[in-house]
Design a protein that fits this description.
With 252 residues, the chain is α/β, with parallel strands linked by helices. The chain has a single domain (64-246), classed as 3-Layer(aba) Sandwich (Rossmann fold), CATH 3.40.50.360. Helices cover 33% and strands 13% of the residues. It is built from eight helices and seven strands, in the order E-H-E-H-E-H-H-E-H-H-E-H-E-E-H. Strands 1, 2, 3, 4, 5, 6 and 7 form a seven-stranded mixed beta sheet that branches. Helix 2 links the parallel strand 2 (67-73) and strand 3. The longest helix is centred in the C-terminal third of the chain and has 19 residues, at 229-247. The relative contact order is 0.21.
């Protein structure tokens, strides 16, 4: 059953009373630079201890049972705060969670003529298969002009084509949403704008935590590491909570 997200408790680490203005709530400008240089890769959490040689075969199998999810950042900008936030999620993931980071840099603008004449583009088909195989989806969305970013919405539009394939890719798929912005308002309006999309696709939104990272310029070091301890703590709790939600969701 679809339910509205619970009111944020401790998620927003910056000012929570001021709504974002059209420029503050942006990861970059309202028309972000398109730099298709984010490679699809896989990052894992902290190093996992090797299984002792004396461990039984059953225990070894249990030790290797992991939850695998796909993460997508909704910005193509080099140095994107949201791409950094996604990488931080992977780095802070609990031992039982593996986060694969996928790129939308090669997803073209949706064109119905292209779909009719050529079918779904290769990069879109590949990403659809990756999402379908994953146990959950983590979207890290900036906020442009008080709403969702066009580049990520365009990717979701392609990923939902053809409609007959929506159940395979999205139906009952656990999804979590967070985002970062250099402004003080966080990404609460962008996150609200995504709710009808998730409902339309039949996804299962995790509402256990809400995280709006405001003032992102003060949160990350030049190398992308999270230097704000409050954000690091909240992000660790967010990822751990979503991992438990995904692990408890029956696979189709």
């Amino acid at each position: 059953m679809w339910r509205s997200p619970a009111p944020p408790a401790t998620a927003n680490v910056r000012q929570r009373s001021n709504p974002p203005c059209p420029t503050e709530g942006s990861d970059a400008a309202a028309t972000p630079d398109q730099h298709p240089d984010l490679e699809r890769t896989a990052l894992k959490g902290p190093p996992r201890a090797d299984v002792p040689k004396s461990t039984s075969r059953g225990a070894v199998a249990e030790a290797h049972v992991m939850t695998a999810i796909i993460g997508i950042a909704g910005s193509l900008r080099r140095g994107s705060y949201n791409a950094r936030l996604l990488r931080a999620c992977a780095a802070l993931a609990p031992r039982e969670l593996e986060i694969g980071i996928a790129s939308i840099a090669e997803v073209p603008l949706y064109d119905g003529d292209v779909e009719r004449e050529q079918g779904v583009p290769g990069p879109v088909a590949q990403l659809k298969d990756e999402i379908a195989r994953a146990q959950g989806l983590l979207l890290v969305s900036p906020e442009y002009n008080n709403s969702m970013p066009g580049v990520l919405k365009n990717a979701i539009d392609w990923l939902s084509r053809p409609p007959a394939d929506i159940p395979r890719v999205f139906r009952n798929k656990p999804v979590a949403l967070l985002g970062a912005t250099p402004g003080r308002g966080g990404t609460r309006l962008a996150q609200a704008a995504w709710l009808p999309v998730f409902r339309t696709l039949g996804m299962r939104l995790w509402t256990g935590k809400q995280l709006y990272v405001a003032g992102a310029g003060e949160v990350f070091a030049e190398d992308g590491e999270v230097v704000d301890e409050a954000v690091r703590r909240l992000l660790t709790e967010f990822v751990a909570g979503f991992a438990e939600f995904v692990a408890g969701t029956p696979r189709p």
